[in-house]
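Late entry, pyridoxal-5'-phosphate complex.
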Amino acid sequence: MTADRFRARYDAATADIDPPLAIVDRAAFDANAAQLRARSGGRPIRVASKSVRCVALLRRALAQPGFAGLLCYSLAEALYLVDAGVTEDAVVGYPTVDRAALRALAADERARAAITIMVDDPAQLDLVTAALGPRHPEIRVCLEMDASWRPVGGAHVGVRRSPVRTPRQVVALARQVLARPGFTLVGLMAYEAQIAGLGDAARGRPLRSAALRWMQRRSMAELSERRAAVVAAVRAVAELEFVNGGGTGSLERTAGDESVTELAAGSGLLGPTLFDGYRAFQPRPAALFALPVVRRPARGVVTVFGGGYPASGVAHRDRLPVPVLPAGLRLTGTEGAGEVQTPLTGPATRQLRVGDRVWFRHAKAGELAERFAEFHLVVGDRVVGTVPTYRGSGHCFG
Ligand SMILES: Cc1ncc(COP(=O)(O)O)c(C=O)c1O
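Prediction complete; structure with ligand written out below:
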């Protein structure tokens, strides 16, 4: 379908709603879920909730074949989702030092059966024990190992997460968990961000893309061997229910690693702009937001209300929202996406009048939900439902 057709559909569907507004194209969301499943090699996909941040959409993803459980980003969030009945299986993908949430976890038997916390350092276990006292009920624990690539000397390719990376280090940590009362070791996670989170086919950057592909091949080979050794060593001392790995950008490659029992993905459901530059797949843009044209400062310039929603990460241009409909608009180099208003230039400005709307895509998936209280669900040229985001439900988990 052409850009004009999409624009006509989205304009028609939301004609009675005043922008700023955000939509999720439900057919695109479902098609993206099917594409993630097709890339997963039959491994179940744990939904990365940070990349969705909307209960109704999390439920919709979990209802699709191939998806099982949530990878949450905070313990308070996991408690909220289990309490709401969204899941009975929530792994918190990042360590927690939230004492109130830990106390709530300890006090709730159902939550304790459903939620697994992440540990990569005995200090985190100490903190749990200090918060709950020495005789706390059993808490499920997943160990995170470092999945970065360290080709030579002090070089580090990847993100800064866990300090444990060798079989010896991870087993030593596993033994710490096993030796302490009140903790049950159930899982292992290794997230290869340098493969899953970096597009290997960025438009207009062939050299960088080729270098990335080389790095990713080497890194994956190194990680597969090391992860298998770590999993074997930990399985020798503890029974693991799951080994989690990967993300939207790496599903087929991580699924090729025999030691991984399940994958994680979230961004691929909504298809933000940072996931445009991958060779293996192309998600459909499922989440968009509309901003209204409020003035026309000069010939060739229109100004829309709102728009300053940059994504997290290193503050390069690729973090900015992108005007996509009508085609032929761009941000200005002097103002970018503004705090309260955003000027746009480009040939499509000629057709835009005060009161018209411009459709944008966000650079990241979940952060859009922090800017809008609700998502309008669009099917064809109709809004078939309106659902609150975390923000709209009054929640801000970090
Ligand atoms: C532990 C972990 N797994 C998986 C992912 C992948 O999420 P997504 O599919 O949204 O890129 C992330 C994202 O940062 C993560 O932190």
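The longest helix spans residues 206-235. Will revisit in the morning.
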